[in-house]
Design brief:
The protein has 222 residues and is mostly beta strands. It contains 1 helix and 11 strands, in the order βββββββββαββ. The chain has a domain of 143 residues: Beta Barrel (Sortase, Chain: A).
């Protein structure tokens, strides 16, 4: 069964949303530490800063069962967020075949770009990057403080040849993982924006997982 829809968005697994992941549930292989199995704070990730407009998802025909990046092979390489003192390597990732989960990089100090969606040079759509909040073994993750970003904060994405695109935070929201609107955040049309995702909300000491996802949206600065 395919783990991605024909429109390029991830498919929700039975009984849970794909974005159990986006913040890094334990990797099936056990390679590296899990992002959501440690507890940095009682309630990580504050609710809404401000709302941003959503766009419907474009339909992309798939002939061979694979989904190319929306703008070819332009993969981002680094993500910088001065307000978080963050300068992280960006890995191109897809979906874990065994679980249907977003394949966040094992190392907590790296973040993962969803390579089946818009890439660095996208002229439209949502460039999705997910990262770990923390790890019981490795400590704070790249997105440990993502929930503290405010409207107006700068996010810089670097791509091939050192080219950079600058974005400005316009929204920060938190959803239960079973309620996150995937069509909005994985859309391949509408204004170019950067979507950053990690874990948040109350931490369950029994499951060793956070209940929610924190999602930050940043609009392209002209």
């Amino acid at each position: 069964m395919s783990v991605v829809r024909r429109d390029g968005t991830p498919r929700q697994s039975p009984g849970r949303a794909l974005l159990l992941v986006a913040a890094g549930v334990a990797l099936a292989t056990g390679a590296g530490a899990a992002a959501c199995r440690s507890q940095p704070a009682e309630d990580f990730g504050a609710p809404v800063v401000t709302a941003s407009a959503s766009a419907p998802t474009a339909r992309v025909p798939i002939a061979d069962g694979t989904i190319p990046a929306a703008d070819g092979t332009a993969a981002p390489t680094r993500l910088r967020i001065p307000a978080l003192d963050l300068d992280a390597v960006v890995d191109a990732v897809g979906i874990e075949p065994a679980t249907g989960d977003f394949a966040v990089p094992p190392s907590v100090d790296r973040v993962g770009w969803y390579r089946y969606g818009p890439g660095f040079a996208a002229g439209a759509g949502s460039i999705v990057i997910a990262g770990h909040v923390d790890s019981a073994a490795e400590g704070d993750g790249a997105f440990f403080k993502l929930g503290s970003l405010d409207a107006g904060d700068t996010v810089t994405l670097t791509g091939p040849g050192g080219k950079a695109r600058e974005f400005e935070v316009v929204a920060r929201k938190r959803y239960q993982k079973t309620a996150i609107p995937l069509q909005e955040y994985f859309a391949r049309d509408g204004a170019v924006r950067l979507t950053l995702i990690t874990c948040g909300g109350p931490f369950d000491p029994e499951t060793r997982h956070y209940r929610d996802n924190v999602v930050v949206t940043a609009a392209l600065r002209r």
